[in-house]
Structure formats: structure tokens, C-alpha cells
Write a structure and sequence with these properties.
This protein is α/β, with parallel strands linked by helices. It has a single domain, classed as Spore Coat Polysaccharide Biosynthesis Protein SpsA, Chain A (Alpha-Beta Complex). It has 8 helices and 7 strands; from the N terminus they run βαβαβαβαβαβααβα. Strands 3-2-1-4-6-5-7 form a 7-stranded mixed sheet, with helices on both faces. Helix 2 links the parallel strand 2 and strand 3. It is globular and about 45 Å long.
Length: 212
């Protein structure tokens, strides 16, 4: 098994089956149920996934790290469980690792809903400054990285800040980052809670200012 696909999931019983069904059969699928109050775990188990059940909602970053620890694959792919991202594009992410160390999904900025444009532009600009390289999309949850590289980053953030933290630490560590065009649906799935958006903004501003 060369690739493990990790799905952090919180209350996604309505969407997660569709995501799992589109993951290539050659991949190990690890679902980390982040303290869901619905049947997310039962759905994932019924589809034969390797499942971790967290006792409470620790956050996306914590869930991603928990999944990575038990992954048997050399490569790790992270993808959200809400159905906005297309798991059929996982092979493109894996292929990108032949020429880079961290593949980051890149959404078409023109397609992002108007209410998200300002926050996404802000995040892209500040994370680009903190990472020392220009990025088109800095907060997409679709990522591919070698397990050894992921563990070497020493990621600490528990919630949505992990996406910014991963890019910034990878860039400062000298890992090669490549953006991979992906498709996305905005008519389904969930949005980042306001309090988590504020935490992400605080984190990336701090990293940009400190430069370390």
C-alpha cells in the first residue's frame, strides 16, 4: 500500500459515503471521526474504512495528525469529507509528488463565492508572505505529501490553522510545493465557523510578522 487517504470528519453522515466511493480502490482509507454526533462513524465502517473515533471534537488539525500516525502508506492524501472536493482527482495529487514534496489543491479563484473572496484573498496574500513564495490558493484542504515529510514538519495546530501551518513550515523547511488545479462544488458541504476563521487569521498574521 503506497497511499493512505485521510478523511477528517465531523457530522458528515450525509456526504462522506460519496467521497469514500470515489477514492481509488488501491488506497488505504482512514476516516477520523472527530467527535461526531451523527452516524458518520457507522457509515465509514460499513464501507470498510479504517476508522478512528475521537472522544470529542478536537479539530481538523488534530484529526489529520491522528490519521497520519496510523497510515501505512508512503504517501498521504488529505481530503475533506463534506463532498465539496472530488476524490476522483486523488491520482492527480499523487502524481504531483513525483516532482514535489507537498502537493496543494488549487481552486479556481474566480469560482469562489463572493462572500469568501475577501477572506481567501487575504489568506493567500499573508500566507504567501509568510511562506516566502506566491500561492494561488493557500487554504484548500486537498493535500498530498509523503508521510515522512509530514511527520518531519512537527505540526501543532489543532483546528483549521493546520492548512496554513503546513504550507508555511514546509516552505521554511525547503520542501518543494506544487499547486495542482482541482474542481470544487460550493453547493454542498460545510463552511469554516467564524471563530475558526478568526483563529486562522490570527495564526497567519503572527507567522508573517515573526517570519519564524
Amino acid at each position: 500500500m503506497t497511499t493512505s487517504v485521510i478523511l477528517p470528519a465531523y457530522n458528515e453522515e450525509k456526504n462522506i459515503a460519496r467521497v469514500i466511493s470515489n477514492i481509488p480502490s488501491s488506497c488505504e482509507v482512514i476516516v477520523v471521526d472527530d467527535g461526531s454526533k451523527d452516524r458518520t462513524l457507522e457509515v465509514a465502517k460499513s464501507l470498510g474504512c479504517n476508522c478512528i473515533r475521537l472522544s470529542k471534537n478536537y479539530g481538523k488539525g488534530y484529526a489529520c495528525r491522528a490519521g497520519a500516525k496510523i497510515a501505512s502508506g508512503k504517501n498521504i492524501v488529505f481530503i475533506d469529507s463534506d463532498g465539496q472536493l472530488d476524490a476522483r482527482e486523488i491520482p492527480n495529487m499523487i502524481s504531483a509528488l513525483r516532482k514535489c514534496d507537498l502537493a496543494v489543491g488549487s481552486r479556481n479563484i474566480r469560482d469562489i463565492p463572493s462572500q469568501r473572496i475577501v477572506s481567501n484573498n487575504f489568506a493567500r496574500a499573508v500566507i504567501s508572505a509568510a511562506a516566502g513564495r506566491k500561492l494561488n490558493d493557500a487554504l484548500c484542504g486537498f493535500r498530498a505529501i509523503r508521510k515522512s515529510d509530514f511527520l518531519s514538519l512537527g505540526l501543532k495546530k489543532r483546528r483549521y490553522e493546520i492548512e496554513a501551518e503546513m504550507i508555511i513550515k514546509a516552505a521554511r523547511k525547503g520542501l518543494r510545493i506544487k499547486e495542482v488545479p482541482i474542481s470544487v462544488r460550493y453547493d454542498i458541504g460545510s463552511q469554516m465557523p467564524v471563530k475558526d476563521s478568526l483563529k486562522v487569521a490570527s495564526y497567519i498574521i503572527g507567522k508573517a510578522i515573526m517570519k519564524g
